[in-house]
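fold-stage: in
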Amino acid sequence: MAAIQGRKGELWTATADAAVAITKEACEAVGDSTTIFHVTDAAKRYLDPATTILVYDSDSLVTSGYHIAGGCQIHFDSAPSGAVTLTGAYLTMAEVGLVQGWELSTEMELYETTSLGATVRTYVSSGILSWSCSFERFYEGNTWQAKAAANATKLMVRLFEDHPSGLVWTGWVIPTAWTQTVPLELEKESLSFTGVGVPVYSVDET
């Protein structure tokens, strides 16, 4: 019997361990790209948002012309001239147990650019992407309740849609709502997040 598509999702998040510092860690290109890089060591790839990230090209500090996407990739405006390294700190990621399902929604900001007298409306993207996500699971303790109660604490999540094939959304989020239900049979909880920055959608890089 074939696997049911809706039962192959997973959610990962950073563990409670403190971020681990790295200094001029080697980076490599993602796939065939010449402008998208990530840390070569997969275990050190998910960057701590609370730590300043420094990027180097041929051992020279890069101060502009790039951004960090999804908390795990370096997106350059143009191809670097030499070896890329990174200084900062990384987070250890682990699967969240007993997640019954997750949901992710994205929305692109559009501006209407229709000319006066035009018969067809036209639009242009602002380049601003907003996104949010949520998940549901059996209640096992106050871990997620405490995260939701924290003052806008930024977390990193990875939302697998077809594990083990590996298509995954990765990005920083802030908890916005937590709900607990206490029926006669089983307690459940759900948590909602608002995305921070732009998420990365890619094949699992681990």
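fold-stage: in (second)
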Amino acid sequence: MNVKFLAFLLLFVSAQSVFAETHYYVGEAVVTKSDGTITREPYIITRTSDSAAGTITEAVVSNSGTGFKENQSVMKVTGSHFTMTESTGTVTGEGDLTGKPWKWTFLRAEFKMKTNAYSMRIVDYNFLADPNSISGHKDFYLTINGVPGEKLIQQEDVVIHPVDKAKFEGERVRLLGR
């Protein structure tokens, strides 16, 4: 193998590891339904930020209403704006980030989910200024296909805290039963 190529490859791999960082979070989601019902459920996230690739990849384990499931998404970041696609392709969206690039302090986004029977709009706010926690608030609006108007069906407030990978994986196994 060419020594110059090997040196370039090592430099490239080293640079990639500097740009990509994975963080693990464990916390709780408080869901308030439109009828006033309130539930508290575990909520965990692994987030990999790769400034060189301009991406943020997340895997979220949360209660889907029929048990805990893991959903993955990728955000493509350009400047302070991003677009997001969930791995299933069902949920897409976009938003804006506030603060120093890759050290943001606030996120506001709007996501859309569409099926044959309904569509949902999710307005999401994430508060990222405190390095010891992330707080978020989401409003979920439902539109039944063929029925005019949308209805606020639930709100979700999330607070998560950084943990090490072992604690995250233990909680992930507990929630998903794997």
